[in-house]
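Reagents: none. Just compute today. GNAT family N-acetyltransferase.
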Amino acid sequence: MSIVIRDVREHELDSVLALNNAAGPTILPFDQARLRYFFETAEYFRVAERDGTLVGFMIGVGSQAGHDSSNFRWFSERYDRFFYIDRIVVASRRRGGGVGRAFYADAQSYAELRYPLLACEVFLDTANDPSLPDPALLFHGSFGFREVGQQVMPETGLRAAMLMKDMCSYPWVRDTYGTQLPDVPWLAPPRAAAPRALATGTGA
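Predicted 3D structure written out:
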């Protein structure tokens, strides 16, 4: 059956938390309080559903968000306007089945109308065999991301490759519509949460 990407629902937060904390070393854990904060404030918080089962989620925030992640701050210190993918998690049994690609296609279709850049990071030194190409870097490279730097996260000691992708449609949208996009259903933002300062905690 097809993959359905849609906004998260409040009653699904426990399932989202379980998915996140079972994802392994490439995803930082978080607790109920931090998940609740994302639910209330994240610009983009969507889940993937397949065969009626929740199989993944993605959280994203705009560059104006008060996000405390050191990786988000790294981008903020270097770029004025971007859409940041804080995390994407796919259930282990569904990896390789197209869920991640469906999420990135959905996030890009949202971001390219509103932001000139799409940003994310990939943790390095977590592969089982360091001699082989990193599958996460290969995945992101296939979507057009390029590495723009690296940093060691001060709160975790993990090294991350900082990735960016140009949103090629954004200049035309900006020059044609400014900030007033047409009022049509497919352009409606996935969430209407207003950003506010994020309490201190471990970010992604």
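The first strand starts at residue 3 and ends at 7.
Action item: order primers for follow-up constructs.
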